[in-house]
Amino acid sequence: MTLDQLRIFVAVAERGHMTKAAELLGISQSAASAAIRSLEQQHGVQLFNRVGRNIELAQTGRRFLPEAKAVLERAAAAHDVLEHVSQTITGSLSIAASQTIASYWLPRRLASFHEAYPAVRLSVTIGNTRQVETTVLDGTADFGLVEGRTESDILRRAKVDVDRLMLVVAHSHPEIAEVSRGHPDIRELRWIIREGGSGTREVLEDLARREGISFADLRIFLVLPSNEAVRQAVEAGAGATIISELVVERAVAEGSLRSVSIDLPKRDFAMITHRDRQASLAQMALKAHLGAKAGETVRG
């Protein structure tokens, strides 16, 4: 007795017609008839009564039908278990993320990923964009999450979100001179910035370039290694900074910081992976969970 024989028996029993059952199962009428005949001969029973061109269940067939269905249901359940086991995503993931992403964007998303994939172990290291790029290139991290530009042409980059940037000063900061409406004179501001290699610092560098100003001509007062240190220094009145809205939105809402009107482009949060390394199932699952769009190898 085989599962195929049982499937054919149930189909014929439910439809009362050999040809219709064969069409449903995608086999020939002769193959269906042979399967039923073989099943009857193997066990010395008659499962169907042939009445003219029609067939109907014999008494033995009526007793056998629920048992046959139960066997097929158990076989389907067993198949589902094996399929689920084969697709269970396990392993470990090493993630390198820049500070803004690691501190403000990533934690909730990793928590929900863990709910969906509890067998995957996660570890996160934090650095600036340049440091994250290095860890992905040397294989220390499986993939990175950055907001700044990357330099290597062997990295694949996929956008996962968009970040809004703000120019902020302390609430008590004097009014800021403008070169034109909505364009503050950035040469007159005293700046609190992140270290070299930071995507946040890169935004100010780009702004100075667009304004035709040498970065060296800006009044850099403090260079600090973290977003939190920058925010606290600005709140204390030390100067101005350009920083992610994620970092300062609460301080702006509470009034310790105020936003200065300026046209700043949004920037992408991006996942970076090494183009020559095979992605594991866990990596593909996290990429999908974070909403990464199909990546393409890019430089810068």
From TrEMBL:
Coiled coil regions in record: none
Cross-referenced Pfam families, in alphabetical order? HTH_1, LysR_substrate
The organism's place on the tree of life at top rank:
Bacteria
Q: Which SUPFAM superfamilies match?
A: Periplasmic binding protein-like II, Winged helix' DNA-binding domain
Point out the signal peptide segment.
none
The answer to keyword DNA-binding applying to this record is yes
> Where do the HTH lysR-type domain residues begin and end?
1-58
Write out the entry's keywords from A to Z.
Answer: DNA-binding, Transcription, Transcription regulation
Q: Which family does it belong to?
A: Belongs to the LysR transcriptional regulatory family.
**PANTHER family per record:** HTH-TYPE TRANSCRIPTIONAL REGULATOR, HTH-TYPE TRANSCRIPTIONAL REGULATOR CYSL
Name of the protein this chain belongs to: LysR family transcriptional regulator
